[in-house]
Amino acid sequence: MKPEPPLLKLFHAPTSPYVRKVMVVAHWLGLSSRIELLDCAANPVARDERITAYNPLAKIPAALSADGEALFDSRVICEYLDDWAAGGLFPTGARRWPALTRQALGDGLLDAALLARYERQSRPAQLWSQPWYHGQMQKIDAALDEIERQAPVLAELPFEIGTLTLGCALGYLDFRFDTLDWRRTRPRAAAWFAEFDLRPPMAETRPHS
Ligand SMILES: N[C@@H](CCC(=O)N[C@@H](CS)C(=O)NCC(=O)O)C(=O)O
After folding, report:
1. Which of 76, 100, 110, 114 to mutate to test the pocket of ligand 1 (most atoms within 8 A of CB)?
2. Distance (Å, rounded) from C-alpha 153 to C-alpha 147?
3. How far is the CA of 56 from the centre of ligand 1 (A)?
4. Angle at 81 between CA 160 and CA 168, to 5 degrees
5. Whether the CB of 189 sits within 6 Å of ligand 1
6. Are residues 151 and 80 in the same domain?
7. Model confidence at 209, in pLDDT bands (50, 70, 90)?
8. Rounded to an integer, what distance in angstroms lies between the CA atom of residue 78 and that of residue 42?
9. What is the pLDDT of residues 153-174, one digit of tens each?
10. Same structural domain for residues 33 and 112?
């Protein structure tokens, strides 16, 4: 049988938590074989022209639809796939807003983590700003506290855009901030994540260098 044509071409990195969101959605919807991965090197201080040809922000994930339409960022690409497959990962009605807000919480945790990491990676040590780093780490801490507060609710929810984004965010902390020890004071979030992270789309998309 002829393989199905790609649904999306995706600028990709196996370390990117936002790309991971897209891949988790693709796996959940049974579409991962319809995503063609494109090489790139996203970097905040060295623009990759392969990406900027489609996304002026130079960030990944960025995608090209079968019609050649550029799609970014992770929120748009996840919703595009879900809409294509009528997957239901973006709830409708009253459940939509809490789900999107959970997505924003996970994305915001990641934004802070990336800003903290980029500062340390991109600037020489003598220019590191402790208040800047501390400010980003405070956002991460507060987001983790909110996940702990919501953990009993999360455990009852179906697989959806909010929970999978929180899963990708916590997975990124384990990958890049492994000394953070966030679980010690957040037992309910830790228990929720331990179970959630075993779901096949999560297991199949773990970040690696
Ligand atoms: N809001 C964006 C964030 C994407 C993002 O920051 N991606 C990182 C890789 S993990 C990136 O491309 N960084 C390069 C840069 O900041 O220029 C999304 O949800 O896709």
Report:
1. 114
2. 10
3. 12
4. 45
5. no
6. no
7. confident
8. 19
9. 999 999 999 999 999 999 999 9
10. no
